[in-house]
Design a protein that fits this description.
469 residues, globular, alpha/beta, 9-stranded mixed beta sheet
Amino acid sequence: MTEGSAAQGARGPAVNRTELTPLLFVERATTVYAPRIGVVYGSRRFTYAQFGRRVRQLATALVRTGLRRGERVAALAPNVPALLELHFGAALAGGVLVAINTRLKPPEIAYILEHSGARLLFTDAELAVPLRHVQPLPSVEHVVTIDDPEFAPGAARSFDGPEYEQFLDVEPDLALPFRVPDEDDLFSINYTSGTTGRPKGVMYTHRGAYLNALSEVIAHRLEPTAVYLWTLPLFHCNGWCFPWAVTAAGGRHVLLRKVDPPLVWRLINAEGVTHFNGAPTVLIMLINDPAAPRTPLARPLRIATGGAPPSPTLLAQWEAIGAEITHLYGLTETYGPHTYCDWQPEWNQCDAATRARLRARQGVPSAVACELRVVDEQMRDVPADGETMGEVVMRGNNVMRGYFADPTATAEAFRGGWFHSGDIAVMHPDGYIELRDRKKDIIISGGENISTIEVEQVIAGHPDVLEVA
C-alpha cells in the first residue's frame, strides 16, 4: 500500500477531505461575518453571531426531545426566522427537515407527516388552525407553535406544547459539530405532487445541497454586500437552496411573510435589496403594481426566475427599469435550479426584442449540475436545431437521491440511468435548451406537436394582456 492510499484508508478524519454539508456555511458565517446583520424580519434584526447562537439553541433543544439521527423534523410556516433557522438547526441536531407547502389542505399535510414519520412539527400559529380538524396527527409527538405577533397577531394556540421562542430558551451545546459523518446522508425531504397520485418525498443530501448552493453563489454573484429579499417560499425546494447560498456568501436575508407588492417595493428601497427570486407570476404582480417604479432603479437588482417559462414581454418590462434577470430551470427533484440561461456579453449588442427572446431560454447546466440532454422516446439525442422537440433528462450532483420510501417511483424516474423531467424542450445549436411544454400538456393537431408555451407567449405579447395560462 502506498503512503497516499494508506492515508485515505486510515480511520478518522482524512487530511485531504471534509464531508460537504451546508452546516459548514453557517459555521463560517457566524465567525467571519459575526457582527454583520444577517437576518431582517420586520423590526427584528439578528447579526450572524446571534443567528448562529439561535441555530445552536434550536439544535440543542431538538436533541433534548430525544431526536435521533436521521429522524424527520417537519415545519409548516411562511418565511419567518424560525423556518430559516430550521434550515440549519434540524441538520445540526442530526435530523432531516421536511418543509411543508403552506398552501396544502389539512389532509395532504397529515399524509406528509405520516409518510415522512415526522416526530416533531413546528407550525406557524395562524397556519395551525385548520390542522385542528385532523388531530391527532399521525406520528407527531411534539408540536412547537411559532407566534408572529408583528405580522399575524392574535392567532389562537391550536396545540399544546411550547412556543418557538420558549423552545429556544436553552443554553446552546457548543459541542454540537458542524460536521457530518457522511455527506450522502439525508439533509431534507421536499414533497412534490408531481403529475399524478400522492405527494412524493424528494430526498436531498448534504452534498447535493452544498454543491447547489455554491452554484447559486457563482451564478447570482452573491457576496457579503448582497441583500436578498425572500419573495420565494422557503418551503419550495428549500427556497431553491438559497438559505444556504446567501449564508455562504455572508449576505443579508430579508424575510417576508407574504408577497405584498407595495411592501416589496418599499423594502427594495429601504433595505437596499440587491437580489430576489420568484416565479413569473410573482414578477407579473410586482412589475404591474402601482408602486412599481417607472424609471430605472437606483441600484442594480438581480432576479432569478423559474418555475414556468417567463414571456419575452415580461422580461422586457423588467429590463426597462434596469433589473437583470437570470432565467433558471429545474424541478424539486434537482434541488430547484439545474440550468441557467448564462448571459453571453455579446448578446448585449442585440436589440431589446432579441435580448428578451434569449433570456426566455432555460439555458445550460449549472457549474455543478454537469449533465443535460434532450432525447426522443428511444433516449437518442434530438438534433440541436432549435426546432425538434424531446424530453429533458438530467443527471449529476444536484439530482435527488430518490423518492423517500418509494423505490418503484424512483426506478421509474431514473430509467435508463437519467432523471426524466417530463418536460419537453428543444436544443439550440449553441447548447441552450428552451422549454416547449410539459409532456402531458403538448397539443397534437393534424399530426403536428403544438407548444402551449409558444401560444401563450404570442398572446402575452398583446399590450392588453396581463397574464396567460
